[in-house]
Every structure is written in structure tokens, then in C-alpha cells.
Amino acid sequence: MNKSIRFFILLVLLFAASRVSSQTNGTLGSRFFSNWSISLSGGPNIFFGDLKEFRFLPATSPVNEIRFAGTLSLNRQLSHVFMLRAQFLWGGLAGEKVKYKDGSLCNQYFESTLFELNLNTTINFSNLILRYNPKRFFFVYGTVGVGMSDWITKTRDITTKEIIRRDGSWSTINPHLVIPAGLGAYFSIKDKVNLGLEWTIRALAIDRLDATVGGYPYDMYSLFAFNITYNFNKPSNNKLSPASPQKQIGPPPPQPLLAAEIAAEKQKEQAAKEQASYPRLTPPSPSQDSVHPKQPVLTPDTTASEEILPDTNIMDTPVKGISYRVQVFAFKENTFSAEQVKEKLRLSQDVVKEFSGGWYRYTVSSFTDFNKAKKLMNDLRATKEVPDAFVAKYINGKRAGTTTQKALKNSKSYKGKIYYRNPARKK
């Protein structure tokens, strides 16, 4: 088995391993166009081989060794660390040599039209080393791959411009193994577009690119390119997109109560509160009139009744068993995990997912002081991600009340199947 085949097998195994072990805390899409993107790039292409005047820098006279090349890439994101790219390169190359090392005259230069097709992977060092962060917008990555390259080269005399040698032709295709490797960096702009720079060195397994054999055993060329990438389905404006179905962890959520049962429960609670507000009366002493005993008349003491305050007027003193959480999102179907909501809404707090009143609700933090919960609510509303956050009350860990679907639909924040509660604000 030759080296090129072994290298290609190793590269395939690397891609397979990335799908298994390189996933991070984010969730990638599962539809056909999920995680696909297309890239265009271009920049100077420099040759390294036998016909080159200087070791590293390109010469500009008597022949300009700087040529340009461009690439078109179709990309598939495998995880937040690895991406697979199919890339096509088209461009030019040139090189010259006036004298050999021993001082003898060479006086030759070449010009080449180059085309290449390769398969490579990018390794996102920012997410690999620093872990995935949805708020990060600058990334550094490395790339390595394998492909095939072909060219049409003409070597000429610098003085007379006469053709001395040729390699390749338009009538036949004779591809040669090429191994590209390099580094890059890019900025993410509004989720859909990336702008970046990439430098790659592309080593050939043959010494014929400049139509000159000898000296360097393998020819190489280097591309320094500016690139732009368009992401097909990456969500914009922090909108949540449906994710793949998730397995239920633990017991299934409780089924919502019927409207009649909810009304009966509320009536029982109200009756218990009213009964507690009445004074307890001791039995009257037996009447001396055994024929017509006088019955006591029960009159409620209205001065002892307790006023039930709405949630927005809670007193500062914490009450035992009562806590407050800030709700950031609600959905009718069991579609999103708590981690997905945290990522999409760019929250720093951990998100808790619960089921009540026929809704899957997502809340953050827990306070015994209502004013602290209200402060967090106002901070979240100030951001564009969670403009409709509100405080929910809990008694002994259970939600004190729910918002009906009709009330949610009539709110200004009703958006199709996704509902936010928009509480009334004091004028």
C-alpha cells in the first residue's frame, strides 16, 4: 500500500472520529441543508521549486513570480471543532532562475496554469482549546487534506522568450497527488457570513510542476487567500429552530388537569382562605328556655379578613416556602432542551425546564426575595434576546399559577406556536 492511500485512509478515520467524540455542548441541525456553507477565496500564489530566484520571497524582475489563484469550497460542519471541505482551486504560477548556485548561467523562467481538487478538514482551535462559546465571533483554525493537482507549464528562455520545455496539455489530464496544510482565522458577521484569511502550503509528490527536474525533490506552491463564507441555514436574530426529537429522560411529565378540575381546586382553595379569615366562636352556653332554645347568630368579623395581594406587590420580607423564578421561554411541544434555550437566547444562567398547565416552561435562577427576581427580569428584558421575561411564583417548589393559552394568544408577543407572557406594566 503506497503512502497516498494510507494517508487518505487516515484522513477518513479522522473524520469518522470527529463525528463520535468531538461534539460540544451545542446542538447542530439535522435537516438536509443543516450546517452546510459555501466559500470563495483568492490571493497570491507563490511557487517553491527548482526555477525560483530566492529561497522564500518572490522575485519581481526580470519576471514577476507573483501569480494569483482562487478557490471555491463546499463545506459541511461536522461539529463545533471539525468541518469537512471539498475545494476546487484554479490559478497561475511562475518562477525564474537567472544563475545556479555555482554561478553558471541558467536564464530560464516558467509560467503555469494550475487546477486542483482536494478534500480537507478544518480544526477549530478556538473551540477545541477554549471550548464552545456561542458569543465568540473570532476563530483560529488549522487545515489539512489530500487531493489531486494538474497543470500546463511552459518553460522559456528569459532573453529570447523561446519555449525550452513543456509539461501537461489541455487534451490530456494527468493528476498528481497534492497535500494541502495551513492555518486560518475568520470573523463571524451576523451568523450568516464569515470573513477570514487562510495560508496554505501545498506539497506535490512529484518534481515536474516547473517542467524542470533536479534540485528540489518535490515542488510546492503557497496560497495566501482572503475568503468569504455564506452559511445556508445558521439561525439569525437568535430565533429558535426546531431540533431533532429527544429521548425522554426520567418519568414522563404529568398530564394537565381538565378545566373543571382546575376550577374545583381553585374553589376549594378560596373556601379554605375564607374559612381561615372567620373568627372561631365557642359554643354558646345552654339556654334556660328548654322549649325554644335561642340559636346563636354567626356574624363574620370583616376587620380580620386578609387582603390577597397580587404577585407584583409582594413584600420585601421572604416567606417560608415561597420562591420566585424568571421565565424566559415557553413552548407547547417537547421540542427544545434547556441547554438549547440557554444557547439560543445567549443566557449566562442555567436554564431549568418544567411542565405545567400544558406548557413546557423554561426558567432561570431562584430567589426568596421578589425584588431580586424582578431586577433579573428587568436585566433580561433590556436585552434583545429576552424582551418578555417575567417573574413566576412558586410555593414549596410548585408553580403558584399558570397562564392560559387564550391569554397568551392575546398578548403582543404571540408568535405562531411560540408564546411569551407579556405582563401588564404600570403606567
Task: Give structural notes.
The structure is a single chain. The strands form 2 sheets. The protein has an 8-stranded antiparallel β-barrel with strand order 1-2-3-4-5-7-8-9. Strands 10, 11, 12, 13, 14 and 15 form a 6-stranded antiparallel β-sheet that branches. The termini are far apart. The chain has 2 domains: 229 residues, Porin (Beta Barrel); 119 residues, Sporulation related repeat (Alpha-Beta Plaits, 2-Layer Sandwich), CATH 3.30.70.1070. It contains 6 helices and 15 strands. The chain is of the alpha+beta class and 427 residues long. The chain is rod-shaped and about 115 Å long.
Helix-strand blueprint:
Blueprint: H1 3-21, E1 36-48, E2 67-77, E3 82-99, E4 105-124, H2 125-130, E5 138-157, E6 163-167, E7 176-189, E8 193-204, E9 220-231, H3 259-277, E10 322-331, H4 338-344, E11 351-356, E12 359-367, H5 370-381, E13 390-395, E14 398-399, H6 405-409, E15 418-419
Antiparallel strand pairs: 1-2, 1-9, 2-3, 3-4, 4-5, 5-6, 5-7, 7-8, 8-9, 10-12, 10-13, 10-15, 11-12, 13-14
Short descriptors:
single chain; alpha+beta; Porin; Alpha-Beta Plaits; 2 domains; 8-stranded antiparallel β-barrel; 6 helices; 15 strands; 16% helix
